[in-house]
Design a protein that fits this description.
Length: about 170
């Protein structure tokens, strides 16, 4: 909500739905919250995941080019303990305190620049090529060109999986 407010985006799931691209830096519950609040989804090409292990997100207004990165402050956890020592459960402490703590005490904000090529925009209709080794289709210029061949990343040696025999 802080990112949207700073960018002046009032209706991210309505009239402004193609105006926002969001980069999340962790694959935890905060990412789900960002998706719910912004309406940005992987399937709509509006939510981008960068596995940096940080509770942070960058919100990009594709109309203006303005972008803001919001990161959770580690100090907010100890602040929650200080505010509500009477609550033994740390999750309950945090849920209550985070409603009371100012945005400035919860988050760092940084205006940033994010270069978005056309294929990164929501609704982009790009070309599709076929891997010359496995025959699978590849969207949005994600292919690797090696020795004048078009390869998918897996066939080019960048696979996150290993093929099993059989």
């Amino acid at each position: 909500m802080l990112g949207l407010r700073n960018l002046g985006i009032d209706d991210p799931q309505g009239k402004d739905r193609k105006r926002l691209v969001t980069f999340v830096e962790i694959d935890r519950c905060a990412t789900d919250a960002v998706a719910v609040v912004t309406g940005c989804r992987l399937g709509k090409r509006a939510l981008k995941f960068r596995d940096w292990g940080k509770v942070a997100a960058t919100f990009v207004d594709v109309n203006t080019g303005k972008a803001i990165r919001i990161a959770a402050k580690e100090s907010s956890k100890s602040l929650a303990r200080q505010m509500h020592p009477e609550i033994p459960d740390k999750n309950q402490q945090q849920m209550l305190a985070y409603r009371e703590i100012s945005d400035a005490d919860l988050f760092t904000t940084q205006w940033v620049k994010v270069e978005l090529p056309p294929e990164e925009f929501p609704g982009y209709k790009g070309g599709r090529v076929t891997c010359e080794h496995c025959g699978e289709g590849i969207n949005f210029r994600r292919e690797v060109r090696r020795n004048e061949k078009i390869l998918c990343r897996a066939c080019a040696g960048e696979s996150y999986y290993e093929l099993l025999p059989g």
